[in-house]
Design goal:
Organism: Adineta steineri
Helix content: 40-55%
Largest sheet: none
GO cellular component, one term: cytosol
Structural class: mainly alpha
Shape: flat
Keywords: Signal
Number of strands: 0
Strand content: under 5%
Order of helices and strands: HHHHHHHHHHHHHHHHHHHHHHHHHHHHH
Pfam families: DUF3402
Number of helices: 29
Protein name: Far11/STRP C-terminal domain-containing protein
Length: about 625
């Protein structure tokens, strides 16, 4: 906040990221925890590790748009050659139909490296190592892949799908219901085995669908939660896993919205296209010196430090958000949805798209480092005098590890926010994110291209036939790289999928389920937080107490009031076990119910039947 004293934001964010990595674990640990949780719920293990599959995928070479070809060719050639280059750009599709090969015949790889820079962690997925391409025009438009020769067996052949197709149980039920109504005339609810009256091709189709049936962990968790809410007396959650993610969520539940808003403010302030504002957060307090530089060399060094400082803040924020989403989704789906919904309500989708709405290639190729001042060069051996010649970065690498890492993380966060949510997908369509995501495909890095293609696949059915006709290269890349969902006609805009949706109702229903989950499992934390707020602000006491008592699940807990059970128990009750209300009115209870000296109880009157009046 503005009144708060200046803090070293970059150091705090990097420290928070390292703490989360140490307590929650890396992304590989989240994958192992997911398999463990699936085994506990009786589900099959996931054999595909996404990091390993993506590591064997070569990047694609998407062609340029016609206008871009005209802009490049128009400076040196006439109009006829420019039109010819435009026609050729639309007809060449061999780059998406075969492997990417270098001039000497060696296959380009996109291996995932564990080596990161001095401010990155080895447990995160690192991008591939590009080298400059042969032509200067190509080097300014895309990043080249690693030119080192690798074993051809380690690279995926494009003749086979990189991912195993999946089928949701809902899609299987919909297919069976449609075919039964068509061939039999009626449908059977919750029956996936009866195939009487259906033709043999339908039997084979259902067999294939069942072979690829995938039940996610989130559906099992939602089913358990719905049963607990529907049957509060018979269905109870007895064993809450005491994991690091559970303890973190319980400790920060009341402050999660404020934390996420603060992270998004830092991300927005550190965006390359962000304009300085008076009310923005001061993120450069530990970079800008007290005395302004007086020489050109010091001014250049300060400019490099400011840009590098912003890049590290974006990197830390994106890594923190991705770690939280990954681990909370494994722990419980409603914890993950609570984080996602707070991010969406805080305009996280538009903030991430604003980050990509600039020249992403120049951002990834940015060199905001000074080699003599990097660690460990700055502490080993004699230090050279800082001159203008030291700012010339050698052209051994035409990429920046830090910016590539941040871009991939932000694309993954955007995927997690919008996957399976029609309302949030329509936000992508409304803000015209398709051209922005298409520009990211020009970065020749397989992981970054994959998550950009996933985002394009989500909104393809809403973009219209003309967009699909002019972007067939992207459609082909989606078919080739993204996982197939059988019975998913994402590319043709089915009427059932493109119908008008009540987006507010969808988000409100999800919000109600999240609130019921939080009130049921963490109602004591919410009550304590409400009491603290009532003490600080008595004016809101009645409203907060009403909201805290809205979901009182303790009132459904059965009690054993049998006298024989109490007398037969061997537990010795002390004064500390008696409730305060009983101690406070103990003497009054003795006078009224035990001694009763002033008036005698008419025991015969108590045994007489009385009429009950129902109002």
């Amino acid at each position: 906040n503005a009144p708060s004293p200046p803090l070293p934001i970059r150091k705090l964010l990097l420290l928070l990221w390292k703490i989360l990595l140490y307590t929650l674990g890396s992304l590989d640990d989240a994958f192992e925890q997911k398999n463990t949780a699936r085994h506990e719920h009786g589900l099959e293990f996931i054999a595909e590790n996404p990091a390993k599959v993506i590591g064997r995928m070569p990047p694609i070479l998407p062609p340029l748009a016609g206008a871009e070809c005209l802009e490049m060719q128009g400076q040196t050639e006439g109009g006829s050659s420019a039109r010819r280059a435009k026609r050729q750009s639309f007809t060449k599709q061999s780059a998406l139909d075969s492997d990417v090969a270098s001039d000497d015949g060696s296959t380009n790889s996109n291996n995932i490296s564990n080596n990161t820079s001095n401010d990155e962690d080895a447990s995160t997925i690192a991008p591939s190592t590009p080298v400059p391409s042969l032509s200067s025009a190509e080097s300014t438009l895309s990043l080249a892949s690693d030119a080192s020769s690798v074993d051809p067996a380690s690279t995926l052949l494009m003749k086979e799908l990189p991912w195993v197709p999946k089928v949701r149980q809902k899609d299987l039920e919909t297919f069976l219901e449609h075919t039964r109504k068509k061939f039999v005339g009626f449908s059977i609810k919750d029956d996936l085995t009866t195939l009487i009256g259906l033709p043999k091709p339908i039997h084979e189709s259902i067999k294939i669908l069942k072979q690829h049936l995938y039940i996610p962990l989130s559906e099992v968790q939602i089913k358990i939660e719905d049963d607990i809410v529907k049957y509060p007396l018979s269905k109870k959650e007895t064993n809450v896993p005491d994991t690091a993610a559970e303890r973190l969520y319980r400790a920060t539940l009341m402050q999660i919205p404020q934390f996420l808003i603060a992270l998004l403010k830092l991300l927005l302030t550190s965006t390359p296209t962000a304009k300085p504002k008076t009310e923005s957060i001061n993120i450069l307090c530990d970079v800008i010196p007290e005395e302004m530089p007086c020489s050109m060399v010091q001014t250049m060094k300060l400019g490099f430090d400011i840009n590098r400082h912003k890049e590290m803040i974006v990197k830390a924020v994106s890594a923190i958000l991705l770690l939280l989403l990954k681990h909370l989704k494994v722990n419980h789906i409603y914890q993950f949805e609570y984080i996602c919904q707070n991010l969406v309500f805080s305009n996280c989708i538009t903030v991430i798209l604003k980050f990509f709405n600039h020249n992403i290639l120049s951002h990834i190729q940015a060199k905001n480092t000074i080699p003599p001042l990097d660690f460990p060069t700055c502490v080993i051996g004699p230090q050279p005098e800082l001159t203008a010649d030291l700012f010339d970065v050698p052209e051994t690498e035409n990429y920046c590890w830090r910016n590539m890492f941040s871009s991939i993380n932000l694309l993954r966060i955007l995927n997690k926010l919008t996957k399976g949510k029609h309302a949030r997908t329509m936000v992508l369509v409304a803000v015209k994110s398709a051209p922005i995501l298409r520009k990211t495909l020009r970065v020749k890095q397989a992981m970054m291209q994959l998550y950009a293609l996933k985002l394009l696949k989500l909104q393809t059915r809403y973009l219209g036939r003309q967009w699909r006709k002019s972007n067939m290269m992207a459609i082909s890349a989606i078919y080739q790289r993204v996982r197939h969902r059988l019975n998913d006609d994402w590319a043709y805009g089915n009427e059932q999928e493109t119908q008008t949706w009540d987006f507010q109702t969808e988000e409100r229903a999800l919000r109600n389920k999240i609130d019921i989950f939080n009130q049921r499992r963490y109602h004591r934390i919410a009550a304590a937080h409400a009491n603290n707020n009532n003490t600080n602000n008595p004016a809101n006491a009645s409203t907060q107490n009403a909201s805290a008592n809205e979901f009182d699940f303790d009132s459904f807990t059965p009690l054993n009031n049998d006298l024989l059970t109490a007398l037969s128990s061997n537990n010795n009750l002390g004064d500390q076990d008696l409730p305060e209300a009983f101690k406070r009115h103990y003497e009054e209870w003795l006078n009224d119910e035990v001694f009763n000296v002033e008036q005698q109880t008419d025991w015969d009157a108590l045994l007489q039947p009385k009429s009950i009046v129902i109002y």
